[in-house]
Design brief:
- The complex is a heterodimer.
- Helices cover about 25% and strands about 35% of the residues of chain A.
- Chain A has eight helices and 22 strands.
- In chain A, strand 6 and strand 7 form a beta hairpin.
- By secondary structure, chain B is mainly α.
- The longest helix of chain B has about 30 residues.
- Classes of the chains: A alpha+beta, B mainly alpha.
- Chains A and B meet through helix 2 of A and strand 1, helix 19 and helix 20 of B.
């Protein structure tokens, strides 16, 4: 039994098997197999167009996969229409119905399953409390609410039906930074409190890392890596993941003829591999340290460059350093004053991926 | 996009809709095309009686389309770009012709310029023969330039003012902006508008029937063959030729519309004002629009006056006798109202549901059904009417009430307007709104009812109003279907004009236009919004 943040991941309520979806000639989702852990907060992360939203919509039943199967609680649900799946969704633009009051919006799902009026009323009020909205908002129309309030109502509307899986499609992307920060915290703690299995789609790596139990990184329709946030961040499986997960330097390089080094634009890295094979070298901007001219650095990659520009970011300075024509980003808490700088990156912080 | 096979209720609904469309759109059309048989086609085409009307149709189409589009463009440009005064007045004047049967222009033309016309005879003492190409050209120009205006104004209004402001900002003068930005950006829309106007004109039956005289065009030839000689075969061939002509224009129009259009539909265009036009242009616009407005007011004014005086333009004494005649012959007007209302309601609902299934769901044969739903827009009314007559004037169908058949013809003749309003409305509503309902447990049809229908009330009303107006103003569709007890107002007017009973004819015309205006105003009042008419085609 694996434990992640005290959440038991014994069984999987939702399982995908080699799910593929094409739109004409475009393969939006390609042979995705996934197990979504029960009660956990799972994030589908990737750049726009990577297929994450399509995958979420397949789970919701808005799209039918061209190949593959979906299982919910070990029952194949490929043929179950959306409205019978129990996979309530929160949409990016909230999708609140403007012609209904907040009350009617939230109560909609319960009306669909013919919940008696007194129970319905009680649950609407309870759910409003859950999302920390005062009850006097119930009579208002969605258009009279702020973006953050609308998203709480959208969340309440989905939660009230007690879905087997809660789906969230970039729910915070239309909100301003402050509201977004607060709602991240609220959604996460709400999810933990009620222990609902949640799938969250975002393109924001910071959001994915901070909120998730499990991160699923996608690129070009395929799943590239699945893991805890820390794993994804610290041990990216591919150059793409490494590059996507943080401000990183990415360099193309080649293994030298003796097969013991990589030369990436004049930066030499100890590496054993097939001579002449193409590689991608990745290290994070905050892993490079300036070192003195004469200083020796063991087990480190050392190179020199000219500081072109330094931007002040508050907590740190981001330097743009020209190293043999490549621009290397170097984040440091203090400004590098020298024009020419010698930098070192610990060898174990530099990742080398063989290109396929 | 979701496939529908998982939801039996949706499959059944769709099957019913498609079945009805096959029965009432496809089947009658196929009947017309098949009725002559191969031999019928060969022998009729060999007689060559159709050649002259064919070229007459082409000739009047080219002439009238040109003039109607030029006038329509001026009117549209003035409404969208100029700063001329009294724009709301000009807007109402521009809508008026859409609310009346097009053939009222011919009627009014005869009253003004005919052998005993107010202007021709009583002012100039002339008794000209106005029947023929010249009169028809003028009448079609006046009758259809408001349609061209509506279509072109739509195109111009959608063009993005920011593009024009950007050109001004870079130093282009008003004329250069018009030449290099406005016109090129509007070109695809303009071409489509021109072709649509041409289709209206070539398909029109009422005006040539009243004023073309010996100058026979295809619709009047088809009518004449049936009413004069009972030659259904010949009429079917002629109207099939007309159909092919209209379809060619229609296909060309869809091709143009399918091309990359530079006109934005985002609706953001209104956020920045259009660059001002020079004063001289404003003055020109105002003068031109005033003249056109006077012309339209004359057309309707003459009808109104004729309806309340003894004998226009001979005896000017005020009288209510024409309206008394109308009230003692009220059945056609009642029929118009009843058939039109029922047809418009069913048509709007039918089209809305169909639009939902096409726009929001995935199923085999969707494109064909989409095509069938749009098809009646390209079908000449006379062809549609002959189709219903040949398909449903059968002894074994005698149990069908004629009023019901007329209503059905009005429903399916107007499907495209409701359907296009539905599709346009649905495109405005983000899919996530109905997806949200289905993800919360509502079936497809339930989500349609709870979410889309209330949000589409504008599109629904547009579909209803347009279908109603078109139903009560059509002549050619119903001219082969009526019986004495199911006569509608347009047919009554047509008969009265042919009998030179101008007083009664104009009283009926005024009433039909009045009913159309009244319905529009009632809908505006009840809904609290100014729904417009759906452009057809």
């Amino acid at each position: 039994m694996m434990t992640l943040n005290n959440v038991q991941l014994q069984t999987s309520p939702l399982r995908l098997e080699t799910v593929t979806k094409r739109f004409g000639a475009v393969v939006a989702v390609e042979r995705v197999s996934l197990e979504i852990p029960r009660g956990a907060f799972t994030t589908l992360l990737g750049p726009s167009g990577c297929g994450k939203t399509t995958l979420l919509r397949i789970i919701a039943g808005f799209y039918e996969p061209d190949e593959g199967h979906i299982f919910l609680d070990d029952k194949q649900i490929d043929d179950v229409p959306t409205h019978l799946r129990g996979t309530a969704m929160v949409f990016q633009d909230y999708a609140l119905w403007p012609h209904m009051t907040v009350y009617d919006n939230i109560a909609y799902g319960l009306r669909m399953n013919k919940t008696p009026q007194n129970e319905l009323d009680a649950r609407v009020h309870a759910t409003m409390q859950l999302v920390e909205m005062p009850a006097d908002f119930l009579k208002r129309r969605p258009t009279e609410l702020s973006g953050g309030q609308q998203q709480r109502v959208a969340l309440a509307r989905a939660l009230i039906v007690r879905p087997r899986v809660l789906l969230l499609d970039e729910p915070l992307s239309n909100l301003d930074a402050k509201v977004r920060q607060r709602l991240r915290l609220e959604i996460r703690s709400l999810q933990r409190r009620i222990g609902i299995t949640t799938i969250y789609v975002t393109h924001d790596q910071e959001e994915a890392l901070s909120m998730s139990d499990v991160v699923v990184v996608m690129n070009q329709g395929a799943v590239v890596q699945v893991g805890k946030p820390e794993e994804i961040y610290r041990q990216p499986g591919t150059a793409f993941v490494a590059e996507f997960m943080g401000v990183s330097n990415v360099l193309r390089g080649k293994v030298t003829q003796d097969g013991k080094m990589v030369d990436a634009g004049g930066i030499c890295i100890a590496y054993t591999g097939a001579p002449g094979s193409a590689v991608t070298v990745v290290f994070k901007a905050d892993e490079a340290e300036p070192i003195g001219d004469g200083a020796r650095a063991d087990d480190a990659v050392v190179f020199e460059g000219d500081v072109i520009e330094a931007f002040f970011f508050g907590a740190m300075y981001r330097h743009f350093v020209n190293v043999n024509g490549n621009t290397i980003l170097v984040d440091r808490p203090t400004r590098i004053e020298a024009k020419r700088v010698r930098l070192a990156v610990a060898r174990d912080k530099v990742q080398v991926f063989v290109e396929e | 996009m979701r496939r529908i096979s998982r939801e039996p209720s949706v499959v059944i609904t769709l099957a019913i809709l498609v079945g009805l469309m096959f029965a009432f759109i496809i089947y009658p059309q196929v009947q017309v095309v098949l009725v002559p048989g191969l031999g019928g086609y060969v022998s009729f085409l060999a007689e060559q009686t159709w050649v002259k009307p064919f070229f007459n149709s082409l000739q009047v189409m080219l002439l009238s389309t040109t003039t109607a589009v030029v006038l329509g463009f001026i009117y549209a440009y003035a409404m969208v770009y100029s700063k001329m005064p009294f724009k709301p007045f000009f807007r109402i004047i521009g809508v008026l012709p859409l609310l009346s049967p097009p053939f009222v222009v011919a009627a009014s033309y005869i009253l003004l310029f005919g052998p005993r016309g107010m202007i021709s005879y009583y002012v100039f003492g002339q008794s000209p023969n106005i029947l023929g190409l010249g009169g028809l050209w003028g009448v079609q120009t006046i009758a259809f330039f408001p349609f061209a205006y509506q279509l072109i104004a739509d195109v111009l209004a959608r063009s993005d003012a920011r593009m024009e402001q950007a050109a001004r900002n870079l130093g282009a003068g008003p004329w250069n902006v018009f030449r290099t930005i406005t016109l090129p950006m509007a070109r695809p829309g303009l071409l489509a508008a021109i072709l649509t106007t041409a289709i209206y004109i070539v398909e029109d039956f009422g005006n040539p029937a009243l004023i073309a005289g010996q100058f026979t065009v295809l619709p009047t030839q088809a009518y004449g063959l049936i009413s004069g000689f009972g030659d259904v075969t010949g009429a079917a061939v002629v109207s099939t030729i007309l159909l092919l002509l209209a379809l060619a224009l229609y296909v060309a129009k869809t091709r143009i519309e399918g091309q990359r259009s530079y006109v934005t539909i985002s609706g953001r265009a209104g956020t920045i004002p259009r660059p001002p036009v020079p004063t001289v242009v404003n003055v020109f616009c105002f003068v031109a629009c005033s003249l056109l407005a006077i012309l339209i007011l004359m057309v309707y004014g003459v009808l109104l006056v004729s309806a309340v005086v003894e004998v226009f333009p001979v005896k000017w004494g005020l009288t209510s006798k024409h309206f008394e005649f109308l009230t003692s012959n009220i059945t056609p007007l009642q029929n118009t109202l009843v058939y039109g209302t029922i047809a418009a309601i069913i048509c709007a609902m039918f089209a809305m549901l169909l639009g939902f299934l096409v726009q929001r769901r995935e199923w085999r044969g969707k494109r064909i059904v989409d095509f069938i739903a749009i098809m009646p827009a390209a079908i000449p009314g006379i062809f549609f009417g002959i189709g219903y007559a040949t398909a449903f004037n059968q002894r074994w169908l005698d149990w069908i009430d004629r009023g019901a058949l007329i209503t059905i013809s009005m429903i399916f003749w107007n499907i495209p307007v409701g359907y296009q309003a539905a599709i346009a409305g649905l495109q405005q509503i983000d899919r996530s709104l109905d997806d949200a309902a289905t993800s919360l447990g509502a079936g497809s049809l339930r989500a349609f009812r709870d979410i889309l229908l209330p949000m589409l009330d504008g599109a629904l009303l547009t579909g209803f109003v347009t279908a109603f107006v078109r139903a009560v103003t059509t002549l050619s569709v119903v001219i082969f279907l009526f019986t004495p007890s199911t006569t509608v107002a347009t047919i009554k007017i047509f008969q009265l004009v042919n009998d030179f009973m101008w007083g009664g004819a104009t009283a009926f015309t005024v009433s039909v236009v009045g009913v159309a205006v009244l319905v529009l105003v009632i809908v505006w009042t009840i809904s609290g919004r100014r729904v417009g008419l759906q452009r057809t085609g």
